Amino acid sequence: MKKALISAAAGALALGCIWPAMADEGRLEFRGGIGSTPFASVNGVLAPNDVRGIAPGGRPWVIEKLRAAVRPDGSISVKGEGLLLAGGNAIGLPGLPRQVVATVFCGAVEFTSPAADLDANGNFSIRGTLSGVLPSPCATPVLLIRNFTANAPGAWFAAGIPDN
After folding, report:
1. pLDDT tens for each residue of 81-93
2. In sequence order, what are the residues at sequence separation of 6 or more whose Cβ sits closer than 8 angstroms to the Cβ of residue 152?
3. For residue 119, what pLDDT band results from cuts at 50, 70 and 90?
4. Which of 14, 63, 64, 142 has the most CB atoms less than 10 A away?
């Protein structure tokens, strides 16, 4: 038992030393998400809640869980749970987007993932390669989950929280 605890502690220490190095090699990670709202208050005045020029979905949205990793070669893995409407008559339902994409911004430059299906509970899993290779370093990274219709990304429904 004592040997197992010592081995586990040594492994955790080694992982703690390696993990920050992996993050420094240009990998972006996002843990947690923020649902979109159509408008934001700016100095007491309602203004469209656009992010990097992308309009939000027409109603408030929530996301229960969001986890994403983007590697320097442009490969991306995103898992989202509970992407649901937070207002209107369809509150608590996944709404109209049947497919979503992830868009990663490095500054003003955007990269988009392949589309993934959104299930009846608002869950999705995106795996693939972004539309380009991220610059190194990626300045002010932003991750948006967007609807995908007519072969193009549309409004944003959730944003990833960077995991520093």
Report:
1. 999 999 999 999 8
2. none
3. very high
4. 63
- The tokens of 161 are what? 């929280």
CA nearest to 64, candidates 86, 38, 49, 95: 86
In a 10 Å sphere around its CB, with 0-12 CB exposed, 13-18 middle and 19+ buried, how is residue 9 labelled?
exposed
Q: Which CATH number describes the domain made up of 27-162?
A: 2.60.40
